Amino acid sequence: MSVLEPFPAEIDRVLCIVAHPDDLEYGTSAAVARWTDEGAEVTYLLVTRGEAGIATMAPQRAGPVREQEERDGAREVGVEVVDFLDGFHDGIVEANLALRRELARHIRRRRPQLVTTINHDLTFPGGHLNQADHRNVGLAVIDAVAAAGNRWIFPELVDEGLEPWEGVRWVAVSGVGDPTHEEDVTGHFDRAVASLEAHHEYLSALGEDYPAPRDLLTGILGDPEQAGRYRWTARVHER
What contacts 139, CB < 8 A, 6 or more positions away? Predict the structure, then answer.
């Protein structure tokens, strides 16, 4: 196992931005549990409610179910503030100006030092194709971080009382094949499992052959019997 740079210790506020409920629960929630235990303020922002994610459940019902599962999972790792955008729909998210504006609005509102998102490359490690929502949200997050700090981009946000925020020092992208940093999450693994288990309806719909949450997270965070620890990794861009 390669040795990566540790995450900065001076993080007080974190904003985690992803496309769907459950995106954060495949590993990132373990790091979140550590950060909240250490006193950081962590908030979640979901672009959609994942309403197209359960094949056997109509979107009108699946959206509220998955929203509640995300709130329940977030609470397991110490996150009480979970926001959802309106007007963006599961499976058809575009990296357009409307999305960039909404993300910049939330970055100015939450004023984080660290923003996290997930892999927005064409593929995941191992070669599996990534989906459009992940790619488009990730790219929009990067652009929104810049827009959040510029008074002259989306000046209507200033009119709303949201002054520019240039305090994002790091953008962390998880689920990539070329991570640069790691967080030791050995003592937080069980809470991460609980946060994924909270997505009961979604996981149940994936069928009996789908791996159990504990097995999934062991595959993502590493088996401590082999590596000595669980670790969450990300490609970190310093600004």
Answer: 95, 120
Tens-digit pLDDT string for the chain (239 aa): 577 999 988 899 999 999 999 999 999 999 999 999 999 999 999 999 999 999 999 999 999 999 999 999 999 999 999 999 999 999 999 999 999 999 999 999 999 999 999 999 999 998 999 999 999 999 999 999 999 999 999 999 999 999 999 999 999 999 999 999 999 999 999 999 999 999 999 999 999 899 999 999 999 999 888 778 999 999 999 99
Annotation: CATH topology of 5-238: Rossmann fold (3.40.50)
Q: Residue holding tokens 């609470």? A: 75
Cα-Cα end-to-end distance for the chain? 27
pTM of the model: 0.96
For the chain, the structural domain boundaries read 5-238
Q: DSSP characters for 173-189?
A: EES-SS--EEEE-GGGH
Q: What one-character DSSP code corresponds to residue 177?
A: S
Tokens standing for 22? Answer: 């459950």
**Residue 3, amino acid:** V
